[in-house]
Amino acid sequence: MNLVNSVFETAEKFMSNSMYVDINYEQLEVVANDMILRKPKRFPNQNDDKDEFKSCLLQLIGGSINYCYWYGRSSIRPSKSSSTKMFEVVEYAFKPYNRSGGIHSIDKCLDDLIKYLSMERFPLLEERIKHLNELRLNAHDYIKTVIQYKDEKIEFLLNSMVQIFPGYASDIFLKRAFLFFAQLNRIFGWFEEDMSEIPVPADYQVPKMLYHFGILNYDEDLEDAIEDAQLIPKGSVAECEIRAATILACQQLCQKTKWSMSDVDSYFWLRRKEINTPFHLTITSDY
C-alpha cells in the first residue's frame, strides 16, 4: 500500500458526498494568488549541527505524543500545557541522554519523561505513556535508518514507522507521521522533493485558517458547535470532513502556488494568532 496516496484517497472519499464541510474553490484561487504575492512564511532556522542523531530522536519522541493539550477551550489547560511546553519537557528529560546507554539510556530518559508529563498533568496520559513505551525497543534503529535514507523518498521510512510504532499508524490521516518528516525538513532540509507530494498534517489550526479565509465552509450546526466550543467527537463524520477538506484544499494550494506542503502549512500555522476565529475542539491522540 502507498500510504501517501491512501491518505489523499481517504480524504477524497470523505469529501465526495460531504455533509458538513465543503471547499470553496473560487476563494481558494483568490487566496492562492495572495499567497504568491506574499511569498512563503517559514519557521525560523531550526538547523542543529550539534547532534544529528539526538535531534532526530527527540523529534520522534516528541512527535509520538504531540497531541491534545486541553479539555475544552484552550484556556482550560492544567499547568498551561502546550506543544511548546511538551517539547521543552522532552528536551529536559533527555538532556543527560547517552546514546551508548548506561544510567542515561533511552529507557531511563523515557521513564523520567513519563514522570514529568504526569506531574504536569498533560491530557491523555495513558495514551502518551503507551506511545512512549512503543519507542523503547526500536527507536535507535529507526533513527539510524532515517539518517541512512535521508536522501531517498520517504515512503519506505513511512512504511517502517507505522509498522514499528503503531501509535503513529492509528490516525486515519497520519498527521503526526507526516509532521515528523516535515520537521526534519525544516531542521535539516531533508526530503525536499517529497514536501510537495505528502498531505498537510491535518489538525485544528490549519482548518481554522482555511475557514477564516473562506476556503472551507461549514454547515450551520457545525459552525455553531465550533463557535460555542462544543467538543466535536473524534472520528465523527464532521471531524473527518474538516480534516479531509483541509488536506485536499492544501493540496490545491500547493499546486497553484508551487509551494511545498511544508511552506503551505507554515504559512497558515505561523499566522494562526493573527485572528480570533475559533478552531474545532476534539479530544484526540491524532493531533
Index terms:
287 residues, mainly alpha, 2 domains, two-stranded antiparallel ribbon, 2 strands, 2% strand
Describe the structure.
The protein is an all-alpha fold. The protein folds into 2 domains: 3-44 and 197-274, no CATH class; 52-170. The protein has helices at residues 3-16, 25-38, 52-64, 83-93, 106-120, 125-133, 135-148, 155-164, 166-169, 175-188, 205-212, 220-227, 237-257, 261-269; strands spanning 21-23, 216-218. The protein has a two-stranded antiparallel sheet with strand order 1-2. It is globular. The model has no long low-confidence stretch (mean pLDDT 94).
Characterize this entry briefly.
57% of the residues lie in helices and 2% in strands.
Give the termini distance in whole angstroms.
23 Å
Largest sheet: 2 strands, antiparallel
Overall residue-averaged pLDDT value:
94
Structural classification? mainly alpha
Provide the number of structural domains.
2
Helical fraction: 55-70%
Instruction: Report low-confidence residues grouped into runs of 5 or more.
Output: none
Beta-sheet strand percentage? under 5%
Report strand order across the widest sheet.
Answer: 1-2
Overall morphology: globular
Given the structure, what is the number of helices?
14
C-alpha Rg (nearest Å): 19 Å
How many beta-strand elements? 2
Pattern of helices and strands: HEHHHHHHHHHHEHHH
Topology:
Elements: H1 3-16, E1 21-23, H2 25-38, H3 52-64, H4 83-93, H5 106-120, H6 125-133, H7 135-148, H8 155-164, H9 166-169, H10 175-188, H11 205-212, E2 216-218, H12 220-227, H13 237-257, H14 261-269
Antiparallel strand pairs: 1-2
